[in-house]
Amino acid sequence: MSVLQVDQVSKLYRASSFGGDVTPALRQVSFGIGAGEVVTLIGESGSGKTTLGKIILRLAPATSGRVLFEGSDIAALRRSRLRDYYRHVQGVFQDPFSSYNPIYKADRVLELVRGVYFRHVGEREWQGKVESALHAVALNPGDVLGRYPHQLSGGQQQRLLIARALLLDVKLLVADEIISMLDASTRVDILNLLVSLKRSGLAILFITHDLSLGHYVSDRTVILRRGAIAEMGDTGRVFGNAQHPYTQDLLAAVPELHKKWHVAAGRTQANGTGDVRTATPDGAVRDRARSLTRTGRPHRPAGTFEPPLLTQFEEDHFVAAAEP
Amino acid sequence: MSVKVENLSIAYPTRAGQVRPVDDVSFSVADGEIMGLAGESGCGKSTLGNSLVYLEGRMRHLGGRVELDGADLPIADVRAMRPHRMTKISLVPQYAMSALNPTRRIGRLATDLLRSHGVRDPGVITEMRRRLALVGLGDEVLSRYSFELSGGMRQRVTIILSTLLNPSLLVADEVTSALDVSTQRAVGEMLIEFRDRGFVKSVIAITHDLSILAQVADSILVMYAGRLAEKASTGTLVKAPLHPYTQLLLASLPEVGVRHDQVTLTGIPGRPPSLASPPPGCRFAARCPFARDKCAGQRPPFEEVLPGHHVACWKVREGWPT
Hints:
Chain A is α/β, with parallel strands linked by helices.
């Protein structure tokens, strides 16, 4: 059974509180996350991926649709039940530097959790909890406790925030672009940490714009385009056998170390020296740029509120009808 | 040689003492070459790129010279650099998205910019229209404000503005990093096309993203903690890197098609040294799995070990077994 079920969730943003244009940020999005599963939510800027993360964390209300956590609608949670919800569902965000108050020591984020959830826990028991949470994220307590945020690396800061979530009885972690601000050499350590947490039963919603990171870490993938699901299913099938033209375009644009862009797009141009020149066929840049100018902005014509129809392509692989 | 940098050192004064993000750096960029300058945050790559064009108030030129098209570039003298900027050497700064004045329409911005550099030829604006069309932007962009454009459009406009007078060298700092993959590709291809059409002779593309450089750069220079680690042609650097740092960095990048259950990638343990008190020897020694005593004590020279392939590493130089 799914830990979290997103059911027909839509979100409309109005340009001003006195009416004006309505922008659909999410259009009837539905999917589930099971225990011990990493679901990657991939989308470009303006696709609605962060909005969905916020709705799941109750930081923004959905316009319509429901989010069910262990079967109950999270929109109805109040007071102590909401506090219980946050005991089980926690978020970590893109910018670790702004998650800390630079005036206080970094481990204050742990103390704040104690103030809300563990007021009656003794000092010794608390220390034990902190140590095991830090251990789970491969942090050495001596390296981080009592330090100020600026004394920690970005990777250490993100680990500490994940440790904070682990202090609670967390069942679902919403990780919104948590590694995009980290250096390449520390990114993969955080990804491997997510994999080990998942193996211990945690459900993870990994939100990213980076296809290779998403592919590395996830079991299932949801590709969002303009607020609606374009393609979703088993990660291997979605990436290995992409059906939606949007997914195919995204995959073709991913910069890879050992494959040039135009080779991926089937436009190999070899010159005399045997190595592939990076010359682009005349007009290709312009065409690509034109199509971006057309679709790159989050402005949508009226009447696109209805999401495209999702159909099953194969087992655990769903594809939406192409939209203009 | 289009650009030649010799023993360049740039410092920032801080309360903890002088910090040298660029420490005795020498390299050259050939005509027509797009050189990628890669490294992790704080390695000095942006300081190096910026110092070639505009020495900010806090930056101190400690020594070294820069030659552009055979003539000395007075980088230490902010005033003397002015006639060179935009005409011979241009910078697309990091966060170029916010480099455009939001109170001026793009067309006005362009004429202001040109006038301040003493250019009154209306033909330049005609050329700008032509270049806008080349990257898929219409004339109407000229009458728009910067905030009316998407990130990718703004990035393209900024690159067009900085290359309008066909400079010899363009320093492009993280021009693709805040963009979505498809826009990233369009901007990357634009750099190549501008080089191919001779709008710029050479480009130094600064980024932390090696995969983007693998697409657009002819050669890649890797920096670590203020020093140069390795430079080679893109193909060589990606397929046969020699410096342990480059090797580990490449090994930590997941590619599409790699899953955690098939391959476990590993990061590089540890952190770069503080630039306020860098170690005397190789700066990567503390994180390097191959380091010996010599590495911590003596600085490895940055030298050509194979044709066109420069490395600063004792292991490579003395042929230690892996």
